[in-house]
Amino acid sequence: MGFAYDFDWGVLWRQPYGTWLLQGIWLTLKIGFLGWIIALFMGIFIGTLRVAPWRWPRLVATAYTEVFRNIPFLVQLFFWYYAGPMLFGEHLGRQINQIVGLNYYVSIFALGLYTASRVAEHMRAGFASIHRDQYQAALSTGLTHVQMYRYVIIPYALRIIIPPLTTEFLTIFKNSSIAMTIGVAELTFMSYRIDSETFHGLEATTGAMFIYLLLGLTVVRLMGFIEARFKIPGMIGR
Amino acid sequence: MIEIKNVSKWYGDTQVLYDINEVIDRGQTVVICGPSGSGKSTLLRCINGLEPYQKGEIVVDGISLNDPKTNLYKLRQKIGMVFQRFELYPHMTAVQNITLAPMKVLKKSRKEAERKAMELLERVGLPEKAHAYPANLSGGQQQRVAIARALAMEPDYMLFDEPTSALDPEMINEVLEVMIDLAREGMTMIVVTHEMGFAREVADEIIFIDEGRIVERGTDEEFFTNPKSERTKAFLSQILV
Amino acid sequence: MFDAVFRNLPFLMGGFLVTLQLTFCALAGGIALGVLVGLGRISRKKWIYYPVTLYVNFIRNIPLILVIFWFYFVMPILAGRAMPPFISAVISFIIFEATYFGEIFRAGYQSISRDLIHAAFATGLTYSQTARYILVPIAFRRMLPSLITQSIVTFQDTSLAFVIGLQEFVRRTSIVDNLEVRSIQLFGFVALVFFIFCFLGSRVARHFEEKGRRTGVI
Predict the structure, then answer these.
(1) How far is C110 from chain A (nearest CA, A)?
(2) What is the DSSP string of B133-151?
(3) Nearest CB to C125 within list B87, B90, B105
């Protein structure tokens, strides 16, 4: 059974392809990390609003979560990139479109917003798993709701949800690959570019797969380290 | 006849059965009792090959369980088992629970299997619940269906693992009655239970197991009126009020 | 206000149809394979467990786009000739989504008490008979809400077939956008359609979850 294909694994490190891959990895890392920072802050905020005892913040947060979860990320990305500038009106919109590296900034923004909705859901689950009495104990010492969340509940919930957060952190790096559709030169884009030059896309994408794998293992290791560092002795389930 | 010869079992490094010896003849009813964790359920599951054992031999009607040539699936057709938590298939009606194995293993036709199932349901007193789902049956009813399910394979032996332990008191009797009838009709039964009333009624032999060893055995008279070991006496004083 | 959308509606809806076809094929294959993957993940036989676990853990660490590209490059080599993108896309989705469905089924199988399996064995059923009549049907009913949720995710994932030029919903919208440049309307429309379907889907999942709790299956 002869495959009419000769493998050329050299595309992975020969110049300029090797450099392309490295540049791609760097961009993937940047987008992932920056997006994650946005996602964490937004996510904690929205997640807290989701369980607030006041109606309007709760509804807004719920609407946010539902909207961002029920639309594919690709569509969200396209919306922000193509339609986003137009939201500022024709004139301003045209100017925004001139910004160099717009696709890069939009990807981080879109990724952050999208992942934030997922972080918010995890936060909600974390809150739900904390006993009601814990809330009441905090309130009974005179803390306001905001203080209670800030000093007691949120730190506790964050530690509980480290495992699902690890999954989200992994997912954000995977989703960063979607930025290639708006021309961001991250890892997946680069492997595709290698194919358009050399027609050895199989080797390039296989190499990229292993790089993502390595990235995933590193993330898990990192989050494990964080979990150990911030551990609370005697916490349930640990 | 079931012969258990010098059987020992380990879970990893922990030994749970020490040198168990016992012979159960056809038609006999043997009751096994003992404190929790003494290994009685484990022993039961070794008899029909659900749990492996590392040392010794269990021979059922001449077939040794540890023989690599033994087809355990075929063996289990001859040994029925009833569990503490009934374990009816929740997604099937009573009749479907009973007819599944006869149709798929014994290759009976649906008509034949259902006819037999209705007979068995009559026998355990639940013909009207034929098409009910387990969720709609009380514990006692579920357990009786479970007994019918085990009987549907026409086994030579029946194993019972604490069949009434998960039942509310008012339902225990309906299940025990079915079991007593079974014993009187000549079924060979090995019953792990705390129900000493049942033991007194139909047991040919009572075995007391503690910490993986058989501490004492005897007929019901000997066992209750004249226990030989201190541990047996202590156990009896706890369960007999 | 949505005039650009209405003008191009047939074209866009043609793309949506392709999206639906992709979803249907991906789900059929992904769920079927997922049933097996789940069984593989609970297997005691090492020669089954390790390869399946390797496969699941590998796929779950890499982006779907890359899997789509990979099959796009590999299929012509294996088949010896060019492949229609639809087929390579479907295969990518099946291989990818089966890992997620597999984990859902695995959780379902593991939620079934050992004694229930033993009860089936005790009546003489073999392992494959028990898997077929007890394990899989019960896991299916229990995991129905999660299966629906993951199906919604698959539906969203099909939009990524965009990258190999498949004429699905998002690509067609993007084509129209290139012509008309009414981006807010057009991408708003795509977003809205997805939102409606996925939101309704999640309500259906919620319904089955409640029903499952009530009838004691979950």
Answers:
(1) 20
(2) -GGGS-HHHHHHHHHHHHH
(3) B105
> Residue C156: its chain A contacts at CB < 8 A?
71-73
- Strand stretches in B78-156, DSSP E: 79-82
Q: Cβ separation of C118 and B91 shorter than 8 Å?
A: no
Strands annotated E in chain B: 2-11, 14-24, 29-33, 55-60, 63-64, 79-82, 157-161, 188-192, 205-210, 213-218
Nearest CA in chain C to A169: C61
Residues of C in contact with B48 (CB under 8 A): 122
| Cα radius of gyration rounded to whole Å, chain A | 22
Name the residue facing C187 among A73, A82, A205 (closest C-beta): A82
**Bridging pattern class, strands B2-11 and B14-24:** antiparallel
Which pairing describes strands B29-33 and B205-210: parallel, antiparallel, or unpaired?
A: parallel
What chain C holds in terms of domains, given with CATH numbers, is 3-215 (1.10.3720.10)
CATH architecture of the domain with residue range A28-184: Orthogonal Bundle (1.10)
ipTM confidence score = 0.88
Q: What is the mean pLDDT of chain A?
A: 86
Q: Alpha-carbon distance A79 to B1, whole Å?
A: 76
Amino acid at A231: K
**Residue range A27-85, pLDDT digits in tens:** 999 999 999 999 999 999 999 899 888 899 999 999 999 999 999 999 999 999 998 88
Contact across the interface for B150 and C138, Cβ inside 8 Å: no
Residue-range domain boundaries for chain A: 28-184
